[in-house]
Write a structure and sequence with these properties.
The structure is a homodimer. By secondary structure, chain A is of the alpha/beta class. Chain A folds into 2 domains: 223 residues, Aldehyde Dehydrogenase, Chain A, domain 1, CATH 3.40.605.10; 140 residues, 3-Layer(aba) Sandwich (Aldehyde Dehydrogenase, Chain A, domain 2). Chain A contains 14 helices and 16 strands. Chain A has a 6-stranded parallel sheet with strand order 9-10-8-7-11-12, with helices on both faces. The first copy, chain A, has a 4-stranded antiparallel sheet with strand order 15-2-1-16, with no helix packed on it. In chain A, α2 packs antiparallel against α5. The longest helix of chain A has 17 residues. The first copy, chain A, is globular and about 75 Å long. Chains A and B meet through α1, α10, α13, α14 and β12 of A and α1, α10, α13, α14 and β12 of B. β15 of chain A pairs parallel with β12 of chain B.
Chain lengths: 422, 422
């Protein structure tokens, strides 16, 4: 792989106007529509080669007509969004004829490692083109044929509009290893997938990594103000998609509300959810005792614990959580304020399902991943997380010697309402 | 060191109001004023123990009355700045009674390693308190007494206002090593100092690192439209503070302007700057030839190269530069547009000195460092780079099952003009 060429092309891509990037997106959506049958054929090869994978994986791998429709409408949605680039984020008059601008620019070259879901490839490529970033893709190997064909189509559709190395598909793990070593050419790695994959990548590259290793999300029952509402939210947060990262793994119930636990456990049982408890609950209800609280079941199973106070609940979440998504169930305003302010996590829900933590549901159009990082981008990452900025000063010969020591008060530092242009 | 306690306290600090954080800053400035003589005494101990360090280092180490005045006025300036926390960055109505907010919050725990400059300690602590971050400090060992005393004073002044572990001073390299291993408790490391230090840290921690290893900055002479202006900017960019990261190391001259080189070299010589050339220039002017273009002299020495075109100049900068600061000298608008758009760097100057790349000069009040990263924060990093955000959804019992599949078009996704509150 020649990663240096990708870096070079990223500079050219960054300088293209928004119309040109939108035109590239439009051509991608047209070719997907046009070649729909061929795409399905390539996907069928993958499906035939992977008849024995679990049903959930098989369903993700499969490109139905409705998924192809969603790809196309997803691209249309992206085209309609404002251009995230060349926005003047700050304009300051430093002195007469000396103006500072902060202008949004792409990050550069982004490597994305994702699951065996060919529709994710189209979504990731579209987000990267819209945000002016070159993308290096490595999809799950089960989707090899679909990914190869989709990449070919996208390259064909965008040839001449965007630089040649705008999109690069890696096909082997060796390629991924190689990519992780090129920190001089690659600016960001976004791994989507298993805990082990993300941890492996975090430990094996100097390139910044954006994503989440695990999703240990919590529901905290502060006050049983509406039994059916609370049960409904907990069941949805656990069962609507049990393997999703934003599904809950632990339920914390305040001691004052302990009378609700029996009823809650019956609802969980009825929804097919196995419950493990803290020692107190385990004894009382004769269920298995939890040995590790930082644990992601990723299945219809949950941990349940009694806490003495909201403070103990918050401490538990901050200690054992993964900073992904947590929900408080209460009608008490003080508790809401305390929880939203003290829980250190990327998404906090008040009386609604943790499953809402998602780029589409947040209205970002799409997401390139969900981040539990504490810098750059947190939570579902859309276009905003794919840009950075550059400072530009327009001067007329000013030098710092004229603004140093006692002369440093010459600076005006006045905000101006002006967009960057030359 | 008990880093877990610092993490715990960071959550409490994050939840304090802006008035309280400002009050803490005010008390710090008062105690510095009050104990001015004792501070100077502690500093004298450092100065006496380091009589043999180079003059430049000695001057940085020395706390004069005017530096103490600057510390105090710097804190006053910070107090006056808007609170960077609890800003509603985005508010979206997802559906009736289901509102998404994006609210600015501190990053958490930040480790800063800095040079032997006691005034930097006060600046860094003030920026961290203003932005609600717990800070772990390790200053240059030459300033040990000053740093210890200043930390004591700050802790005394802020006791009861901010949590106990808000400020932690590390005194040994072993402590730093230990800190780098605690990625579960520390969210960001900002190393200021030598190239080797920054590279060592980048290679020895999983914690994100913000900063720059080197500053290989360039001046590109595109058009000699005003000889004295161009010479003035180049001399200032090199000599105003030769060891600063934003000083230039390489001058690129477009071949069409080559006639200017002789005159430029004389000016450089008169300013005490040694010049090394590309093979063509080295031969012509009998000066040493440059062997490595990615090189930071940090002294009164510079590399000079002829390039055939602006494209070659930009390629050279993108290949050998460090993404710190570059300047174009020209009166040609097309060249300005090309350079500002294609040079991949954190700060681009048009006809003014590269030395302007600095938090104070940019009007950020102060800076915690300068970053050449491509994510989170780039260029001089002020308060903006010390905050991140949290998503909060306020609901009334909504679950995702009611917004899935065909029902996913129930989302309104309407921007609302509302600040987050409960």
């Amino acid at each position: 792989m020649n990663f240096e060429n990708i870096k070079k092309d990223s500079v050219v891509l960054a300088s293209l106007g928004g119309d040109r990037r939108n035109e590239a997106l439009k051509r991608i959506s047209l070719i997907i529509q046009e070649k729909r049958e061929n795409i399905k054929k390539a996907n069928e090869t993958d499906l035939n080669e992977n008849r024995n994978i679990p049903v959930a994986l098989y369903n993700r791998l499969k490109l139905s007509d409705s998924k192809i429709d969603e790809m196309i409408s997803g691209i249309s949605g992206l085209i309609e969004l404002d251009d995230p680039l060349n926005k003047t984020l700050l304009a300051t008059e430093l002195d007469d004829g000396l103006e500072l601008y902060k202008v949004s620019v792409p990050i550069g070259v982004i490597g994305v490692i994702f699951e065996a879901r060919p529709d994710a490839l189209v979504q990731i490529v579209s987000l990267c083109i819209k945000s002016g970033n070159c993308v290096i893709l490595k999809g799950g190997s089960e989707a090899a044929n679909s990914n190869r064909y989709l990449t070919e189509l996208i390259k064909e559709a965008t040839a001449g509009l965007v630089p040649e190395h705008c999109i690069t598909l890696l096909e082997t793990r060796e390629n991924v290893k190689e990519m992780l070593s090129f920190d001089q050419y690659i600016d960001l790695i976004i791994p989507r997938g298993s805990n082990d994959l993300v941890k492996y990548i975090q430990s094996n590259t100097k390139i910044p990594v954006l994503g989440h290793a695990d999703g240990v999300c919590h529901a905290y029952v502060d006050q049983v103000f509406d039994e059916s509402l609370i049960k409904k939210i907990i069941i949805d947060s656990k069962t609507q998609y049990p393997s999703a990262c934003n599904s809950i793994e632990t339920i914390l119930v305040k001691r004052s509300e302990a009378a609700f636990i029996g009823e809650l456990m019956e609802s969980l049982k009825a929804a097919g959810v196995r419950v493990n408890g803290c020692s107190e609950i385990a004894k009382k209800f004769c269920i298995p005792e939890v040995s590790e609280w930082h644990h992601e079941y990723g299945d219809l199973e949950v941990s349940l614990k009694i806490v003495d106070s909201i403070d103990e609940g918050i401490d538990h979440i901050n200690k054992y959580g993964s900073g992904h998504t947590e929900v408080i169930l209460t009608d008490n305003n003080e508790s809401k304020i305390k929880f939203t302010s003290l829980v250190d996590t990327s998404s906090v829900m008040v009386n609604c399902s943790t499953r809402f933590a998602d780029g589409f549901r947040y209205g970002f159009g799409a997401e390139v991943g969900i981040s539990t990082n504490k810098i750059h981008a947190r939570g579902p990452v859309g276009l905003d997380g794919l840009v950075i900025y550059k400072y530009i000063i327009l001067g007329r010969g000013q030098i710092v010697a004229e603004y140093s020591g006692e002369k440093s008060d010459r600076f005006k530092h006045a905000r101006i309402d002006k967009k960057f242009s030359i």
